[in-house]
Amino acid sequence: MIELGLARISSLLRHTPQPWKAIHVAGTNGKGSICAYLSAMLHASGVRCGRFTSPHLIDRWDCVTIDDRTVRESVFREAEDLVLKRNQKENIGASEFELLTATAFEVFAKEKIEMGVIEVGLGGRLDATNAMEKKAVTIISKIGLDHQSFLGNTIEEIAREKAGIMRPGVPCVMDSTNPPSVQKVVQDYAKEIGTDIVLSSTESSFLDELSQEDFAPHQWQNLACAYTAFHLAYTKLESPLHRLLPAIQNINWPGRLQTVDIRSLTGRPGATLLDGAHNVQSAEVLGAYVDGKLRKGSQKVTWVLAASQGKELEGILKPLLHQQDCVAAVQFGPVDGMPWVQAMPTYEILEAAFERGVDSGRMYDAGDNLSGALRWAATVAGPGPVVVAGSLYLVSDLLRLLRKANDIEAQLSK
């Protein structure tokens, strides 16, 4: 159950020191990538940096990093135990995400970070992460329709909720590709509280050193947001620009246009594309990538798809599926620490695929058997591409399966 509000998280954090400054990132798409770029830049610049993003991908503690490395499990569990005891002792009744946020902030205090890069969980104004004390910069990434039942039915209403992370006198970087109506809402709120909006810009000497062709269009914009915010937040006299380029070029953000080898699970050689596209905007990006990079003419693509309940499935599938494609529908498993997240029934995914023109003979209902879905996809795909998409929770399940299979292979080879 999601219950937005700041009272419980504020009680949880009452005894948690927050001397560090923060870059707070809200939006519908691009938040995770912007956070990854920022933490890489800060780490490369010698700033001790903590990052908190959600959801986790493989283990619950991988949502917290220190200097671009996943926090040690022992450190995470020690902080989590402290937070859980505080929640129980003071009868706070905090939600799972509030407990996780407080745990991350406890880790940051213990690890003595200088700057935190914090991704909003849901919305902005009433999100648990908005209880942080010292913001250096805020960021509004690309905004679209998502979580309407919590944030509003129009993109403008959603933008207003996300703009709630802004603070008086703290500059806010906004993705300049947002539509004018969104920009107006954010600009109006900035004037109301007394702060400045800085539109992201791809015109900089730093970006001139990179090849735009190496980035998908949306990632170029995400990088522009991150660098603009970094430029505002980094206050040391020494210029770190010469160290930023290698940091950006070597960045790896799992679950976003990620190529994986699933031979250990299916026996099929070659690469499989993995992407957590879970709303219309991210699906449009994925569809453009697949059509531009993987499809050859009218070649079929074989999809393994899952989705969370309540997602706008028709809008997600429209840019992905062609009539000649094959589709395996699967349900992801329970999400550790996020019991409110439920998988969409597979029959709903297959019905939506049929409405998109995919023949029922090219579909497979895998239930909750991801391994079976992958084996079916590997068999019917032939030499064509296989894409696993629709949910970051599906991405998590696949990465865990791969880790387990690779661990077994490693043990057998000893």
From TrEMBL:
One Gene Ontology term of the molecular function aspect: dihydrofolate synthase activity
Known catalytic reactions: 7,8-dihydropteroate + L-glutamate + ATP = 7,8-dihydrofolate + ADP + phosphate + H(+)
Keyword Magnesium: yes
Pathway: Cofactor biosynthesis; tetrahydrofolylpolyglutamate biosynthesis
GO cellular component: cytosol; mitochondrion
GO biological process: one example: one-carbon metabolic process
EC number: 6.3.2.12
InterPro entries: Folylpolyglutamate_synth, Mur-like_cat_sf, Mur_ligase_C_dom_sf
Transmembrane segments: none
UniProt keywords, alphabetically: ATP-binding, Ligase, Magnesium, Metal-binding, Nucleotide-binding, One-carbon metabolism
NCBIfam families recorded: folC (TIGR01499)
Family: Belongs to the folylpolyglutamate synthase family.
Protein name in the entry: Dihydrofolate synthetase
